[in-house]
Amino acid sequence: MMSYVPKKGKAVVLLSSMHDDQAVSHNSGKRKPEVIQYYNRTKIGVDLMDQMVHTFTCKRQVRRWPMALWHNLIDVATLNAYTTLKARHPGDLGGQNDARGASSRSLAKSL
């Protein structure tokens, strides 16, 4: 666990079992911890997942955070199910324009 303060009043707390807390990269102009640089290199996957989840979502405006978390878990699980289906059976989707929506509806009906 480490704390990094890029600007005054803006602290970032990092937790990693992969990186050493003393590891700092000097090759860029700024001295950033390796954990920050690794996150910046690999965060594209999280951004892409958020974009794909936003296309077909079950989220609703709720005031309780457990319900918001539940809706997000359902969205991510549905995307993971579609990704697994597409990887295991690439020809079964038949090039549908709405293949993800169709698989989401089929998954919902089977539950």
TrEMBL record:
One Pfam assignment: DDE_Tnp_1_7
InterPro entries, per database record: PGBD
* UniProt-annotated stretches for the region Disordered: 88-111
Q: Which residues form the PiggyBac transposable element-derived protein domain?
A: 8-82
Bilayer-crossing residues are: none
Q: What is this protein called?
A: PiggyBac transposable element-derived protein domain-containing protein
Q: Which organism is it from?
A: Aldrovandia affinis
